[in-house]
Design a protein that fits this description.
This protein is α/β, with parallel strands linked by helices. It contains 10 helices and 9 strands. The two termini are about 30 Å apart. GO terms for molecular function: lyase activity.
């Protein structure tokens, strides 16, 4: 039941912050500011040095149990390339796993432990393979190589596929992705680059607020 609840919570929250940085401390700070701004789903990428430390620290501070609680957030791991790393991330506290590609053993491991897994897919065959392995949500990656119209095109023959674009989603096109039927969207460097450049992490909160406003407006305008 927890797995399905988490998937539903991710869908309802709609926006996933994909966080990269130079240290676990930096990424924890980014996550705290993004959560403060209203984005409640954090994907800590394993390209971050000592990323597991960041996942553990955030998992101890935040909980997915009660969406109405002040400390509500869902912490996951991204850029997971193999099943061994997926297991380490789950033990560190990650509640969902995201991969840039389709790795069968990673999916099997996540299914074994009832942890949501979102593998990266690029083709119809990728999506079919993911569905056959029991994946509930596929990551469309890199999203900047597609337009939002790809989702209804994919869901014509594959209406059962839940598609999450990641990469290239911005405030300019977020509404188009949501209205095209995206299950959720992954937001990368656009959320953090201005803050890092300026040395002002409060800008992450402001950008997060803007993203959530855009998301809720898009949802409200769905026909």
């Amino acid at each position: 039941m927890k797995k399905m609840k988490l998937i539903q919570q991710i869908h309802e929250a709609g926006v996933i912050a994909v966080l990269r940085g130079d240290s676990p401390e930096e990424v924890v700070r980014m996550a705290e500011k993004a959560i403060e701004g209203g984005i409640k789903i954090m994907e800590i990428t394993l390209t971050v040095p000592f990323a597991m430390e960041a996942i553990t620290a955030l998992s101890k501070k935040y909980s997915s149990a009660d969406p109405s609680a002040d400390n509500y957030a869902i912490i996951g791991a991204g850029t997971v390339l193999d099943s061994e790393t997926a297991r380490l991330a789950i033990l560190a506290g990650a509640e969902f796993i995201v991969s840039p590609g389709l790795d069968k053993e990673t999916i099997i491991l996540c299914n074994r432990y009832r942890v949501p897994v979102m593998p990266g897919t690029f083709t119809v065959n990728d999506i079919l393979a993911a569905l056959e392995l029991g994946v509930d949500v596929v990551k469309l990656f890199p999203g900047n190589l597609f337009s939002p119209s790809v989702i209804p095109s994919l869901r014509g023959p594959l209406p059962q596929a839940n598609v999450m674009p990641s990469g290239g989603v911005s405030l300019v096109n977020l509404a188009e992705w949501v209205q095209a039927g995206a299950f959720a969207v992954g937001i990368g460097s656009d959320l953090t680059k201005e803050a890092v450049k300026a040395g002002d992490y409060n800008l992450i909160s402001e950008k997060a607020q803007a993203y959530m406003r855009a998301f809720y407006e898009a949802k409200a305008n769905l026909k």
